């Protein structure tokens, strides 16, 4: 053990005292390891980020408790949701009305807002102050009495407010006696869970590949130094441990740099918002076991990779370093990995949300990880098998293919990182383009701009005038072409219940061609209701109503979904207000569909403002939920950027490897220059030498990624379609990396091919 | 070029690398088919002289002419073309492209000169046979000995049938027996193809294969009497 430590220490000293070349190699490795470590530490912080967010979400939860629901008291508070959207960003709003002096105060506030007072999150305060927030300011014209502290927010970029209200009543609000009711965190949607697993794998496997590649930077020059040590009497084992010591120094330095880089990234966390999520820097804290795993695992991996890499090298004392006879890569275990992954995934395909619950997520995660890791394992074999068969071509092609035939391992290992990242990205892009269809419904796809508005009547006369007033208010809003509004009641008979929609004749005729209509008429949609004229039903809890005996049964021809909720939901009973004359109508819902003029900027925001003026707790939905589409677009962009970043990272390590190879081959290249070889021929050979493994890597990853994406889509029951745009984009990015690596190698190539390389004295 | 004019000549060459002067007024002339040994101790400037003659290094001062053409006035592309078509090179070590087989190494300059792969490799095999290493055609440089490697390198240098063969310490890494064998083959092959040879060496034993010796000392040349054959 002591000998081990001594030899590692010798290696460490060699790394420090090996001159500029050695220090450069240590620096390159350290930078590579640092990038990987920083990414790993961010990934290790994800559990804390989610926990922190969930904990704050739970602490401010305001679900009504059973006891509080009973009666008002000194400790009770009425709460109503005013969750809005503003230009595709979500706003979490709450109207509050204290019922006593001891009413609970939400986290992040030092007191309750008085009626008309507003407490806002810092991000909302900034937005309201800005020019961009002028329209939102119309919706929140109240004086700002203070800001919500971090402990009351899910993240630093969250738009949130608490508004004091003296208009809240029992019927339209929840009664609570404390915040932080025991609520289970919502957790990720199973689809998103599956995607998260793919994202993490696609991100972390290339990082591991990159760290392994970084530890091997400068390997050949190091082998030459080791030969000198052999001459001094070091045996092969000692030599390997000394080499491991060198790698250890670089890895430890990388660990330190990676820690610093992580702290830098952490400091910037407040400014980053993704998928409408933002995190406080304090939440970007790696969990202790994961941080310890990174701190111990990376240096240990550095030592291990070096020892494994040196297994295939015979360092001889007379400065002669020969690669041990290369062993043919075995296919069986490389195929076994993706095959095992496929076996795990197959039972989940076509099983709907089978991935959620009862170990389904673990099975999915294991399957995806095995497929992606399998690609990384399969690629070196594939590259070796393909380049072995390559021949023909010009001088440049011949030089490149022969070089790859001599040692394709280094390129293939590095390109494995690309393959995993790209396969993961394509799988996700394919999945997103399929799943997007679930969230972005056909209504938006049809191009119609329609919004639906839902208002719950509190029975307190807040909606005096009902549907007509709502429709009138909406029609006055900027950018509204038309609005239809109905009142909606639940009618129960026996154990069944049906919906009754109440509106004037003009509105009803716009919904269904009812024909002749006068106030007092009622209509039953043929085949859609079991009610018959004269049937007795209960409206709400206890109000009795008899379906008019002259109610007419009419056909419902069906409508396009793009026409909005008022038209598209075929409610079985339609009634004019006169049909309910004399009935004490219970609290009901108002439903409106608004057709928007898309050429009017912010038409939907004007509608939201108009609705908020009537009732801030009303819900406004745009057809096809734009926010989901935007979020998917954001995620897809982020994913593409991530995959390109990984490509760039791997390209950087290919460049380092390529430059090292040029240094090593300085003499043969100088000789080639001496007998008149044009530099362009060598440059083209470098291009091919990079392009061949990258092309194979991309081909394998496109196949695997598309397959994985299709499987994920089948798992969630979505139609399978390839996202050709992202495949083309990533392939173009791969080609760009090849060109950049080649271009960046050219200055070194020019230097290498100078005649100075021929000088031996 | 007149009959009396040398094939390759250098006059008053000066070349410095930083503070170190490698050539300080060196001059030399080589006739067609002649084997000239450039001798001198380590660091005397003999390799730099060879590089200047071959158009690999541009002298700071002086003139190099090949068939009456001033090489110091040629651009890099012209010099590369000249080296590719008219000159051949053999160095001490590390000259074969490690990833190419021996036959591919020999065929390389032919292919660069425009020959098809098939034709280049056919001619390369002929040269390998002539240099008595035909059986090594499919092996890579890592799989053969130093002496065999030098013979492959000579085959490569002669494959384009150059007018001048530049050999820089071609036997420096070989034992005496192998060195003799390589020199005999080099001399015979050059003679058969009519190529002039500029042979840089510090070993009199190797220089003995030349027609004439030029001694370089402190960057200056001194011609000695023709070597008795």
UniProtKB/TrEMBL annotation, chain A:
TM segment ranges: 26-46, 191-215, 247-269, 289-310, 331-350, 362-383, 638-657, 669-687, 694-715, 727-749
Listed InterPro entries: ABC3_permease_C, Membrane_comp_ABC_pdt
Domain ABC3 transporter permease C-terminal: residue ranges: 198-311, 643-751
Gene Ontology cellular component list: plasma membrane
UniProt entry keywords in alphabetical sequence: Cell membrane, Membrane, Transmembrane, Transmembrane helix
Subcellular localization(s) per the UniProt record: Cell membrane
Topological relation to the membrane, as annotated: Multi-pass membrane protein
Chief location category: membrane
Protein name: ABC3 transporter permease C-terminal domain-containing protein
Organism: Conexibacter arvalis
From TrEMBL, chain B:
Taxonomic placement: Bacteria, Bacillati, Actinomycetota, Thermoleophilia, Solirubrobacterales
Classification via Pfam families: ABC_tran
Entry keyword set: ATP-binding, Nucleotide-binding, Transport
InterPro entries (alphabetical): AAA+_ATPase (IPR003593), ABC_transporter-like_ATP-bd (IPR003439), ABC_transpr_LolD-like (IPR015854), MacB-like_ATP-bd (IPR017911), P-loop_NTPase (IPR027417)
Domain ABC transporter: 8-229
Protein name listed in UniProt: Putative ABC transport system ATP-binding protein
Any one Gene Ontology cellular component term annotated for this protein: plasma membrane
The keyword Transport belongs to this UniProt entry's keyword annotation: yes
Gene Ontology MF terms in the entry: ATP binding; ATP hydrolysis activity; transmembrane transporter activity
């Amino acid at each position: 053990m002591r000998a081990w430590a001594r030899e590692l220490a010798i290696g460490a000293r060699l790394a420090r005292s090996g001159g500029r070349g050695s220090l450069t190699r240590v620096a390159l490795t350290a930078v590579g390891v640092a990038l990987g470590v920083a990414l790993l530490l961010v990934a290790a912080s994800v559990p804390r980020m989610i926990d922190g967010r969930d904990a704050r979400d739970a602490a401010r939860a305001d679900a009504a408790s059973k006891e509080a629901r009973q009666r008002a008291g000194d400790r009770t508070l009425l709460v109503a949701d005013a969750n809005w959207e503003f230009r595709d960003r979500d706003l979490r709003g709450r109207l509050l009305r204290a019922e006593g002096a001891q009413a609970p105060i939400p986290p992040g506030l030092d007191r309750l807002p008085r009626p008309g007072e507003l407490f806002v999150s810092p991000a909302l305060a900034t937005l309201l102050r800005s020019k961009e927030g002028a329209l939102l300011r119309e919706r929140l014209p109240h004086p700002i009495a203070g800001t919500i502290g971090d402990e009351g927010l899910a993240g630093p970029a969250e738009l949130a407010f608490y508004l004091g209200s003296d208009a809240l009543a029992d019927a339209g609000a929840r009664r609570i006696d404390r915040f932080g009711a025991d609520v289970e965190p919502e957790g990720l949607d199973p689809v998103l869970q599956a995607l998260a697993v793919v994202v993490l794998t696609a991100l972390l496997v290339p990082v591991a590949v990159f760290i392994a590649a970084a530890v091997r930077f400068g390997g050949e020059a190091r082998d030459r130094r080791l030969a000198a040590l052999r001459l001094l009497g070091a045996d092969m084992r000692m030599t390997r441990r000394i080499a491991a010591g060198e790698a250890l120094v670089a890895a430890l330095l990388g660990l330190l740099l990676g820690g610093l880089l992580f702290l830098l990234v952490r400091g910037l966390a407040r400014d980053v918002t993704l998928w409408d999520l933002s995190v406080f820097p304090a939440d970007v804290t790696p969990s202790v076991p994961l941080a310890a795993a990174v701190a111990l695992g990376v240096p240990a991996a550095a030592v291990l990779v070096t020892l494994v890499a040196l297994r295939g090298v015979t360092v001889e004392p007379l400065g002669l370093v020969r690669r041990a006879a290369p062993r043919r890569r075995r296919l069986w275990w490389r195929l076994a990995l993706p095959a095992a992954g496929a076996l795990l995934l197959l039972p989940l395909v076509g099983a709907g949300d089978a991935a959620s619950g009862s170990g389904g997520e673990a099975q999915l995660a294991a399957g995806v990880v095995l497929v992606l890791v399998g690609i990384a394992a399969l690629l070196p074999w594939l590259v070796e098998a393909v380049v072995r068969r390559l021949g023909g071509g010009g001088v440049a092609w011949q030089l490149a293919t022969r070089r790859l035939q001599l040692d394709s391992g280094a390129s293939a290992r590095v390109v494995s990182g690309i393959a995993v990242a790209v396969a993961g990205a394509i799988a996700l892009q394919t999945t997103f383009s399929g799943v997007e269809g679930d969230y972005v419904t056909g209504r938006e796809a049809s191009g119609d701009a329609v919004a639906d508005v839902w208002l719950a009547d509190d029975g307190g006369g807040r909606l005096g005038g009902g549907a007509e007033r709502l429709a009138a208010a909406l029609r006055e809003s900027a950018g509204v072409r038309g609005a239809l509004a109905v009142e909606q009641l639940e009618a129960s008979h026996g154990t069944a219940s049906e919906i009754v929609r109440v509106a004037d004749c003009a509105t009803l005729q716009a919904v269904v061609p009812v024909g002749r209509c006068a106030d007092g008429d009622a209509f039953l949609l043929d085949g859609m209701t079991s009610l018959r004229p004269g049937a007795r039903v209960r409206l709400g809890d206890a109000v009795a109503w008899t379906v008019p005996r002259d109610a007419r049964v009419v056909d419902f021809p069906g409508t396009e979904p793009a026409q909005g909720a008022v038209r598209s939901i075929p409610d079985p009973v339609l009634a004019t207000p006169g049909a309910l004359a004399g009935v004490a109508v219970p609290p009901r819902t108002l439903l409106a569909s608004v057709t928007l003029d898309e050429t009017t900027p912010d038409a939907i925001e004007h509608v939201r403002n108009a609705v908020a003026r009537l009732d801030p707790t009303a819900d406004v939905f745009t057809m096809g939920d734009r926010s989901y589409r935007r979020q998917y677009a954001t995620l897809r962009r982020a994913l593409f950027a991530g995959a390109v970043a990984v490509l760039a990272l791997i390209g950087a390590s290919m460049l380092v490897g390529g430059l090292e190879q040029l240094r090593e081959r300085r003499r043969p290249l100088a000789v080639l220059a001496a007998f008149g070889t044009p530099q362009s021929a060598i440059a083209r050979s470098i291009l091919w030498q990079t392009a061949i493994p990258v092309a194979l890597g991309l081909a394998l990853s496109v196949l695997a990624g598309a397959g994985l994406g299709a499987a994920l889509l089948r798992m969630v029951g979505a139609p399978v379609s390839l996202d050709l745009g992202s495949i083309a984009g990533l392939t173009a990015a791969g080609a760009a990396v090849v060109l950049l690596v080649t271009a960046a190698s050219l200055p070194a190539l020019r230097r290498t091919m100078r005649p100075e390389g021929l000088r031996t004295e | 070029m007149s009959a009396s004019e040398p094939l390759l000549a250098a006059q008053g060459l000066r070349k410095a690398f930083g503070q170190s002067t490698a050539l300080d007024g060196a001059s030399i002339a080589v006739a067609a088919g002649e084997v000239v040994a450039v001798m001198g101790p380590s660091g005397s400037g003999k390799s730099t002289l060879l590089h200047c003659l071959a158009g690999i290094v541009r002298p700071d001062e002086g003139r190099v002419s090949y068939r009456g053409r001033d090489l110091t006035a040629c651009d890099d592309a012209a010099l590369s073309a000249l080296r590719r078509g008219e000159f051949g090179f053999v160095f001490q070590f590390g000259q074969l492209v490690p990833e190419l087989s021996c036959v591919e190494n020999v065929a390389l300059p032919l292919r660069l000169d425009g020959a098809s792969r098939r034709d280049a490799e056919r001619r390369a095999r002929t040269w390998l046979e002539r240099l008595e290493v035909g059986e090594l055609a499919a092996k890579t440089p890592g799989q053969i000995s130093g002496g065999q490697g030098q013979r492959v390198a000579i085959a490569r240098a002669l494959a384009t049938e150059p007018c001048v063969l530049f050999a820089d310490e071609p036997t420096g890494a070989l034992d005496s027996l192998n060195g003799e064998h390589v020199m005999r083959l080099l001399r015979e092959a050059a003679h058969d193809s009519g190529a002039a040879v500029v042979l840089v060496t510090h070993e009199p034993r190797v220089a003995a294969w030349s027609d004439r010796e030029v001694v370089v000392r402190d960057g200056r040349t001194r011609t000695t009497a023709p070597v008795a054959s």
